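Most newcomers find our protein records easier to grasp once they have seen one. A learned vocabulary of local backbone shapes supplies the integers on the structure line. Here is such a record, shown just as it appears in the course material:
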Amino acid sequence: MDSATCLAIAASRGHRPITLSVQYGQRHVRELRSARALARHYRALEAIEVTVPLQEIAPSALTRRSQALPKDRSAKEMLRRGIPSTYVPARNTILLSLALAVAESRGAEAIYLGVNAIDYSGYPDCRPEFLRAFERLARKATARAVEGRGSPRIEAPLLGKSKAGIVRWGERLHVPWSLTWSCYAGGSRPCGHCDSCRLRAQGFREAGVLDPLLGAPPRSRTRANAR
């Protein structure tokens, strides 16, 4: 939902987007189908899809099915308990490096990404200081910048938004939520219990918008057992 809203924002600002999707061994590879559908919806100039086997070099609960996903945690629990097992080491650094290569080779003005520093599950590579550092690196590492032709801007318009704020912004831009995918668990239907599903449900609930994938917010396991 974050990447879809980010794509809608870029399109609304007059950009002709090039999308980049990465198969990195994630258990929720289903998200790539959504990425292709969104690229078609927003008439991307190119819809690039590459494979980087991060499961071999950066194991995580997202890349190894033998490792359990955190479930039924509140947003407060996610932040209080530190960096979760779903953190993929250096993932955003690697993804941004790929995006930088695409941007420089195509002469793109900016790299848009849907990272969020509020509802971010504690990931260190979703913070403003990380993005500022990468932007400085881009100015040192690209031929365009070295030759005085500038380097792509890093645009993270959702950085300071809550999930509810993202839903509201997406609603204004008519984001097709039915094409999006957030669940970490994989499978054909959202699990409703992983951190990503929980944050998504909270965002739609607080925004007063019905999620076409999850419907009503999932009940917590404790409450369900009590009943």
